[in-house]
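fold-stage: in
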Amino acid sequence: MKVHDLLTLTVSDVVLGGQALVRHEGRVMFIDRGLPGDLVQARVTRIRRRWAEGRLESILTNGPDRVPAACPHVQRCGGCRLQDLDYAAQCRLKERQVRETLQHLAGIQDPPLRPIVPAPATAGYRNKMEFSFAPAEDGGPMLGLHERGTFDRVFALERCILPSELTLAIVALTQRFARERGWTAYHLRHHVGVVRHLVVRHLPHTGQCAVNLVAASDELPGLGEWARSVAALSSEVKSVTLILNATRAHVATGDEERVLAGGPVIVERLLGLEFEATAAAFLQTNSTQAESLYAAALEAARLDGSETVLDLYCGTGTLTLLFARAAREAIGVENVEPAVAAAIRNAARNSIANARFECGESRAVMRQWARGERAGAPRPDVIVVDPPRAGLHPRVVFRVAERRPSRIVYVSCNPGTLARDLKDFAGHGYVLDGITPFDMFPHTPHIECVARLVPRL
C-alpha cells in the first residue's frame, strides 16, 4: 500500500465522527463517510506504521444500515455526519461508544450503563442555529454553513433538517436582503467586510424567536428595514438585535448588542420553570430532550427535600433552580458574570427563594471555601457538576470529594473526559453507581450522559 493508491475495501466498523474503519495489510485504516458493510473505493492519503488514512472516492455497494440522507448538503456539511446511518444504528453506536470509553479510559470493565435515551425527534429539534456569511464567487454575500473540516469555506444553504421552518424563512429573507442591499461579507483571511453571522433561536415550548445579526460594524444599508422585515415574518419573532464584533475572532458574540426590534430577551419553559435566553446565554439546543436529561439528573440525586445541593458550572441556573425546587437549598457556582446575573433573574422569574449563586471559577471557589477564605461555604449533601467538554480539573475532583457528599451527579457532554474524571473520582473513594447516555443531537457524533457516583463501601 502506497500513498495515492486506489483500494477497494469493505468497511468493518464506524467510529464517532463519521470515520469508517477497515483493516488492510495489518493496519487500521480510517476513511471519511463510510458505513459498516459498505464496499468502497478509497484513495490512500496518509500511512503510518500501525494505521493509515484514506479519502472516500465512491461507494460501490451500500451496507445494511445505510439510508438515504434527507439533507441535500450531507456530503459538504460538517454537522450531520451520521445522517445516512439508520437512526437505530446511530443510537447503538453511541451507546457502545460510552461503554467502550468507560472500559478503556475509566477501567470499569462492566459499567452500570442504562440504555441510551433516543431523541424524540430526529429533525427540527434544534432551537438555535448559527449561520455564517462569506464572499461568493461574484463578490456578493453568501449565507450558509461551513463546509466539513474547514473554518473559512461556506456553502449557500438550500435546506436544513435541523431548525424550524421559521428559522429557514429568516435565513432566506436575510440572504435575499443582503444581496439586494449590497452588504459585504466578512472575509476570514483578509479581515475586510462587515456582516459575519446570523444566529436564530426559536424556542419550541414557548414559540418565542430571537434573531441576532453579528457584524463588524453597523454600516449595513437598510439595517432597520431588514429588522422590521424579519419581525414581520411571524408574531413569534420577539427580538431582533445587532451584535458588533470588530475583532478578528470569528465568533458569533461581541462587545455591544443593539436591539433593532422587540426586546433583548426571550423565554423558554423547561419542566415547568421559565428561563430567559439572551444572545450570549447558554441554553440546551434540544429543548425536549433537555427535559429528559434534567429529569434524569434529578432522579440520580434522589432528593427527599431535606438536602443542600451544590451545582458547579451552573451557567444561567437551569439545573440549580430545578434542584432548588426539590431540595432545601441549592447553590450555583459559575465564573461568567452575565450568566450569574441571568441565573439570579431566572430565580426571581420563577419565585424561587432557596437558591443562591456564587460568581467565580469552581476550582477557586471550592479552594476558598475549604480554606475559610470565602464566606457562605455550604455543607452539600449532593454535588452536581456540568462542566464544558474539557471536563473537570483534577483539583476540582479533589475538592468535590473532599466535601464528602452522599451523591455526586455528573452531567457530561464528552464521554472521554467523563471517563477520565470517573477514574480520578475512584482514586478519592467515589464509584460509578449508574450512567445513562442521551442522544441530544441526532445525526452528529455528540453524546450527553448523566452519571451518579456514590462513596465506595
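fold-stage: in (second)
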Amino acid sequence: MTEDCRERLIIFTRYPEPGTTKTRMIPKLGAEGAAVLQRRMTEHIVARVVKLIGLRNMSGEIRFEGGNEQLMAAWLGNGFSYCPQGQGDIGFRMGRAMQDAFEQGFETVLIIGSDIPDITTDIMQNALEMLKQVDLVLGPAGDGGYYLIGVHRNTFRHWNPQLFNDISWGTERVLPQTLTIAERLGLNYSLLDTLNDVDRPEDLSVWYQASDLTTPSNCSKSLSIIIPTLNEAKIINQTIARIRHSRRTEIIVVDGGSQDETAEIAESLGAKVLRTSPSKAAQMNAGAAEAGGDVLLFLHADTRLPENFEQCVLAAAAQDGFCAAAFALAIESNRKGLRLIEQVANWRSRLLQMPYGDQALFVSRDLFQEVGGYPDYPIMEDFELIRRLKKKGKIAILPESVQTSPRRWLNLGIFKTWLLNQLIIVAYYLGISPQRLSQWYRRGKDQSNR
C-alpha cells in the first residue's frame, strides 16, 4: 500500500465453474449458461471498479469462492489482490474482509457483490463521498438485502462484529435488521439508490437491460429468423411467442407440408409463412430467399432463443470480421447423459468451430448467398454449410445458451442417438453420399424403435 492509498474496494464473487455457481439459474440457463452468466456479470462489475481505481488512488481486492488464486488472477488480471472468502456466513466473511483491510492500514472500505449489474462508478464514488459525513453507507437491494456496505476504520472498531450478528441472511429482512442494529449502536448512516440483483431466472431482464449498454451504438443491422417446420403445432406457439416482439427481427416460418395447424398458428402470431416441399435444406433456402434482414438466423422449431437474443446476434454481427456464429447448447433435461452431450457439443463447437444445427447458426445474408446456401442434401446439410463457412472466417460461439428439446435423444435413446450421429459424420467424411446416409439414418432409427 502506498502512503496516500487509504481506500480499499472489495468485490465478493465466485469462480464461474459450471454446476457450482448461480445454481438457481441452472433450470433456465443450464449449468454452463449459469456459469457464463456469473463470469460475464463479474467482468461487468470489475470493469467499473477498474475505472474507479483509475479515478482514485485506491486498492482493489477480490474475495472469491471456488477456484484458487491462480485461476482468479488468470481470469480477472493482476490489478487486484485475491483472497478466499473462507468459512462462515456472509456476515462473518464480510467482517473478516474488513478486519483484514483495516489491519493492513486502509482507512475506508467498500464491499460490493457481483450480482447487481446496475452498480456504476458514480454510485461507488458517491458512497465514498458519503463516508466523509457518516459512519455507515448501505446500498439497498430490491430483494431486501444490500449490495454495498462502506465503513471507516474507527467506526468499525466500535461495532464489529455486532452489525453482522443475528441477521437472517438471504431473506428480505437483511436490510431492516441491519438498520435496526445500526440505530441501536448509534451509527449515522446513509442509503444509496435501491438496485435489483440477478439471482433467479425472473431477474434476468435486469442483466439484459444492463448489459445492453455494451451493444455497439452503430449497430443498424436487421435480423431474419427462419424456422423450418413439419407438424410442430404443439411447440411452435412458444417458440414464436418468445421472439415475436423484438424490434429489428422478422420471423419466417417455412412449412414442409404439415398435417396439423402449424402454419395457421404461426400466421396467427404474426410470422410470415411459406410452404415448400418437406426438405429442411429447401425450406431454409426458401426462407433465406424471402428474408429482408441483413443477418439470417436458422432456428429449429423445438429450440428457444435466450431472451436477449436480438442484442447478442446484432452485436456479434456488428463486429469487424464477422463471418458466422451460433449460441452455446443447453438441453432441457436433467438427465446426466444429456449433460454430457451438452458438454461435448459445446467443447466441439468452440474448439473445432463446428456447432450443431440446434445451436441457432446465424450468418450475414451476403455471405450465405456467396457460399451457395444450404446444399440440397437430405441429411448433413447444416454440417456442410458450416464447413463452407469456415473457409471464409471464424465461426464464433456466443456464451449465451439456446434451450433445445431433448426429444430427438429421448426418442431413440441418448447413447444410440449419439453413436448414430458419430457414425454418420465419419461416413460422410469417408465420402458416402448424403442420399445413402439418409437411408442408413432412417433405417437405424426404425430398427431402434422396434
